[in-house]
Design goal:
Layout lengths: L4 H4 L7 H5 L33 H13 L4 E5 L2 H9 L7 E5 L4 H11 L5 E5 L14 E7 L11 H10 L3 E5 L4 H4 L9 E5 L13 E5 L2 H14 L5 H11 L2 H20 L4 E5 L9 H7 L6 E6 L2 H10 L4 E2 L9 E3 L11 H6 L6 E5 L5 H13 L2
Parallel strand pairs: 2-3, 2-4, 4-5, 5-6, 10-11
Antiparallel strand pairs: 1-7, 6-7, 8-9, 9-12, 11-12
């Protein structure tokens, strides 16, 4: 039976692990490092938890199903997942990456991947022709859509066609949308990565990451890298993410509903010079989002008239919490210039629009009226 995405969040189709769990509704936590064998060549199917663990396997099957892939791998963080993907490349290989990415990804590429001999071209892939950056050594295109934090929307299907024509991998960070709203593999991506810390877990209490692919050869390569480098997600953390995914559909719908209300309210504030949210008709990627996604997400970036106002708002919000990260039940406000993108050189930040007047909101599931009241008082007293 083919389940809807809402049901997949709760029930894994035809899972052997469910039958082995004695009917437990909450999948068990197999808190063990190693597994005993009955004899030589008589494995239970599990040997050592770095390689696989039943709890992590159940989570991986769930995420693979949600992303419409054949295999998902659960890592100890989103960055360890991206770092594993970078191990697919060799010295001399070239990757085209979007100019607007999470600062941690930029740091990895510039400080680790480049040291290892991989070169990068950075471009606004939502508007520029990626083909002008192709070289004979280009092996992949790496994007987020929407991007973090400037919310550029890139045409995944179009990039996929170009990638396939030139035998490149298309890697898509789908963290902002989650598999509930967007499935890049269906649009032609080769690898999807997630910070599972964010919407998949959704409760600000776990660090996790994922890679997902629909290609068997890629799945085997990533599994080899995973078992060799060893950044596996622990059984208890795997269970927490499984628990979080049960409410993914409900959380995404409520957070998106709140985001739309906040974005509309921010558009009406005279101190706000720009609101960047794909759910607004004013966003240049609005129509594309309607074609390639089932929603607009719950991330809002906005610009205020001065850096002093931005800092004042951050110090005066009460219900909304001034904190890094995103995708949890609580609404968080972030200052990209000093937090998520602090390691990106200032000149590079400002070139893509990340100034000291930019703020980013990850909208949670509180009552919208309470969030609006909190923003109102923060602006009024600023």
């Amino acid at each position: 039976m083919a389940y809807t995405v809402e049901t997949k969040c709760l029930h894994q189709e035809a899972s052997d692990n469910i039958e082995k769990a004695y009917g437990a509704i909450s999948f068990p936590i197999y808190q063990t490092a190693t597994f005993a064998h009955r004899g030589v060549g008589e494995s239970t199917g599990y040997d050592y938890s770095r390689l696989q663990n039943p709890t992590r396997e159940q989570l991986e099957k769930t995420v693979a199903s949600l992303e419409k892939g054949i295999d998902a791998i659960a890592f100890s963080s989103g960055m360890s997942a991206i770092a594993a993907v970078m191990e697919l490349f060799r010295p001399g290989d070239h990757v085209i990456a979007d100019a607007d990415l999470y600062g941690g990804s930029v740091r990895l590429f510039q400080k680790i991947s480049e040291k290892n001999g991989i070169t990068f071209s950075r471009a606004d892939l939502s508007s520029e022709d990626v083909q002008q950056y192709l070289t004979e050594n280009t092996k992949a295109i790496y994007i987020e859509t929407p991007t973090n934090p400037m919310m550029h929307v890139t045409d995944i299907r179009k990039l996929s066609e170009i990638a396939k024509a030139h035998h490149l991998l298309l890697i898509v960070d789908n963290t902002f949308m989650s598999p509930y709203f967007q499935n890049p593999l269906e649009l032609g991506a080769d690898i999807v990565v997630h910070s599972g810390t964010k919407y998949l877990n959704g409760h600000n209490d776990v660090i996790a990451g994922f890679t997902v692919t629909a290609d068997q050869e890629l799945a085997e390569k990533l599994r080899f890298i995973f078992k060799t480098t060893g950044a596996c997600l622990a059984p208890f953390d795997s269970w927490l993410v499984l628990r979080g995914i049960k409410t993914l559909a409900l959380r995404m719908e409520k957070a998106q509903e709140n985001a739309m209300k906040l974005a509309n309210w921010l558009e009406g504030k005279k101190q706000v010079t720009r609101v960047i949210y794909p759910g607004l008709a004013s966003h240049p990627g609005h129509e594309l989002m309607k074609k390639q996604s089932r929603g607009f997400g719950a991330m809002i970036t906005f610009e205020v008239e001065s850096s002093a106002l931005a800092r004042s708002i951050l110090s005066r919000v009460k219900l909304i919490q001034f904190a890094e990260s995103l995708g949890g039940t609580e609404t968080l406000i972030t200052y990209p210039a000093t937090q998520t993108h602090a390691d990106v050189p200032q000149e590079e930040r400002e070139k893509i629009g990340i100034t000291d007047r930019i703020l980013r909101i990850s909208t949670g599931i509180e009552g919208a009226e309470d969030l609006l009241k909190d923003l109102e008082q923060a602006f009024e007293t600023a």
